[in-house]
Amino acid sequence: MAIDSPFSFVGDSGRFRGAPWRFSSSFCHVATVYIERNMSLLSTINSPAELRNLSTSQLPALAVEIRERLIDITSKVGGHLASNLGVVELTLALHYAFDTPNDKIIWDTGNQSYTHKLITGRRDTFHTLRQFGGISGFCKREESEFDVFNAGHAGTGVSAGVGIAEARGFLGQKYKVITIVGDGALTAGMTYEGLNHAGMLQHNSIVILNDNKMSISRNVGAISAYLNRTITGSFATWIKAEAKTALQSIPRIGEPMLKMARRAKESAKGLILPGLLFEELGFRYVGPIEGHDFNQLLPILEHIGKLSGPTLLHVVTKKGTGYEPATKDPVWFHACSPFDRATGKPKKDSSTPSYTSIASNALIRQAKKDSRIIAVTAAMAGGTGLDRFAKAFPSRFYDVGIAEQHAVTFAAGLASQGMRPVVGIYSTFLQRAFDQVLHDVAIQNLPVFYCIDRGGLVAEDGATHHGVYDLAFLRHIPNMTVMAPKDENELQHMIYTGLTLDGPASVRYPRGSGLGVPLNRELKLIPIGKGELLQSGRDIAIIAIGAGVAPAMQAAQRLKSEGIVVTVVNARFVKPLDIELITTVASEANAVITVEDGVLQGGFGSAVLECLADHNVSNIRIKRVGIPDIFVDQGPQHRLREQCGITADGIYHTAKELHPAFKNEPVTK
User: Given 388, 432, 575, 624, which residue is catalytic?
Assistant: First the structure.
């Protein structure tokens, strides 16, 4: 890939003087041979200071070695491979050109920071990436002074960078602030709020736009189209080459005319290139340049580091560079599971359908019967399973990009005119649209249905991605119906039920495969606010919701073998609660345990406590099992549930702590 950049760098580049170097497949082969026969370059780098001791001619070989490490580790543990392969040269160039950690590099989202981690002291622990007790897959201030700002949601980087640059001024310090944002973040409104503020303040700062035409799925919308309007096509390149040859052939006046044409090109570029947008926001625009070419990256980074005021550098990269399977399927390799590196195929593929696929199937079934059903997602078509809906009903599907707030209010507009919009979204991303859920949907009692994927603990992506807050922040909103199924069969019935309601409703379900239960062919309505009594007993009542129901049943069976007879309730609804069922079983039991895959503060267990208090059910032992008041780090889903006690074993031991038979106390009921 080569880009004829409208930015011209004239003169030699100081420490970057020398023959040009470019990343290419042929060089990749040569560098690989070098690495195999010589000492590893990466093994000599414990910090960017040591990186800067390398000659510039060694950097391409280092880039190849880093790609090898990225592919090797992610093939074993999974991770965000495609985006990280795309920013290897850019990352090395940034740390080479700037004085980090004194100069501050902010990674928007942070899931493309693997190379950054490798060269900032985490090389020897990189194999623990996204593992329980290991290093995070995102930037994390607690890990390193080089991680300036924690993030897991796109669109936060520019705003954070503006704040850091302002703090620099208040403290009388001098350092450079560089923020890297992906072009996907340009669909996030918060990015423009930050750019607008930076343009107004006019302090010295650099924003680097990493343009790879992708966020998670392929970018959508007018901004993406705007960025694509660059003079880099083969026809345009041919025209420029022919014009240059023609002008140079004219005696005496050819060369002056060629220089004049170049100046005219610079003057006119704002009319047809994406720089105009950023310049109107108060930024000096530079680019686009090729992001895999050190010959372009290093001199330009050195140059813009000396400029005053806000500067935006437009860098074009390609996701998955250096690994063919990732370039062919950058969507799957955006956040991949462990894979066979020779083929790029997943190592494990469960035969049990995922909750996501069950939800998608149920939506498609109902959409065939009801033309009012519209699906909306925010750059997560594949992750939410709505890509299959899009293929079945292309005119009734909308991917609005990384714009969760817009997605919800857009759905509200559809619903206000009689449509039945479904917002497919991860729990962690719905947090970003809380005001729209409350203000634009619930107050008007509009029938917007939220299919909340990745509810609960989601494993290796850690604290920024666990979906543990939705039950708590949705249950207190008037007009909301909040559901969570005990298994995949109940999920499809809840989706069918939610689509019939005349007000806002949600169903949340966990990441991963279902329990493998049989699926009913005919979908049925679930009575709103009615739980399910799974088994009866007078010793302990376990009232569970969603993913907590299955381990509650398993714990009950173990307790029964020890002579403790347990009631188990599948609550189904966090709102409205089945008040009659909950108060009845609580009144008859010696103790009550609530179980949820969500935060305890204000969550399902809190709702049960409120219910019992409001209906004067007292003098009973109660224990809530769920996510404590901490941010849970990354790790396998089962390990994190064990840590929080949301397992059959954890519930069993909680019951033993509560029941009088285990405490040598008299049974009172």
Answer: 432
